[in-house]
Amino acid sequence: MSERRYEIFTITPNFYQLGTPSYPAYLLMGDSGVIIEGGTGVTFPIIVDQVREIGIEPERIKYLVLTHTHPDHIGAVPHLKKLWPHLKVVASEVAVKLLQKEEVIQEFIKIDRIITEVLLIKGDIDQWAVELDNPVFEVDMVVKEGDKIDLGAGVVWTVYETPGHSPCHLSFYNERDGILVIGDATGIYEPGKEVFWPNYFHSLEEYCNSIRKLAALPAKIGARSHGGIVEGEPRDYLQRVMKATESYHREMLERLTQGESPEEIALDKAKWVYTFTNLQPFKLIRAMTELTIRRSQAVVDKGDLFNIP
């Protein structure tokens, strides 16, 4: 386990932010508990140490819920399942299909190693991740829109399908405490610079629909998969996300109209992104910006994408 102590943020008496600031995971306790986010391989021992520090018996934690299956969100799954085999891994049906592809898993493992290197360079961690010989990414429980995850003591999560960032993305809402786990449904936000990077890698239209869906919930606390807890009202944050998404999209289309090539724009935007979030290698960030350009081009004739009632 890690010799370094990583801060635990107590959001409410039974809701905790674990992991690292760059790659947080969340723990909510009722009679039983749930960890939301599969983390990275290197955050596995950090999460384990934090659970022990809080004083919660691992046997009380029943579920390990995945917002989606990008590499930086599933790397700790096989480690946690090996240590705590009673955990039920929860994900969407689309996620199950993705995790059954061997070539996808191998690519995920490769990227997880790269993420470890990036975090070591940044000083966010001080040791390499332990690699398993045959990591298993099996889902025990498939959920869909409207399903409930009941932890007892009145603590119930409702599942919301929120694709756009990825095809398999889920968000979760706990009505009793007003907690909304947003995941990566709103992309990356750098509060120090008030900068948003819209992450509609799968579909811009679905990304906007998902933001609208989340904005309709009367949430009091918003929890992101990067950047931690939302400051202020989640609905206000979601409105700012939508405005930033529209601005980003229109800039892409305008630059294309003016004759810039998608490659030129992608390189420029990747350089901009890397100035405030370098959690991924530059090459991967550039590929991501190329994706957003293509997704913007796919809805060039679509109107009224960005309204929040």
CATH superfamily: Ribonuclease Z/Hydroxyacylglutathione hydrolase-like
Mean pLDDT: 94
Total count of domains: 1
**What is the rounded Rg?**
19 Å
How many E-type strands?
Answer: 14
Q: Reading side by side through the largest sheet, how are the strands ordered?
A: 1-2-3-4-5-6-7
Q: Please, could you describe this protein's structure?
A:
This protein is α/β, with parallel strands linked by helices. It has one domain (9-232): Ribonuclease Z/Hydroxyacylglutathione hydrolase-like (Metallo-beta-lactamase, Chain A). The chain has helices at residues 44-54, 77-83, 93-99, 102-122, 204-215, 234-257, 262-274, 282-298; strands at 9-12, 15-19, 24-29, 33-36, 61-65, 88-92, 141-143, 148-152, 155-161, 170-174, 179-183, 188-190, 195-197, 221-224. The strands form 3 sheets. A 7-stranded mixed β-sheet has the order 1-2-3-4-5-6-7. A 5-stranded mixed β-sheet has the order 8-9-10-11-14. The longest helix is centred in the last third of the chain and has 24 residues, at 234-257. The model has no long low-confidence stretch (mean pLDDT 94).
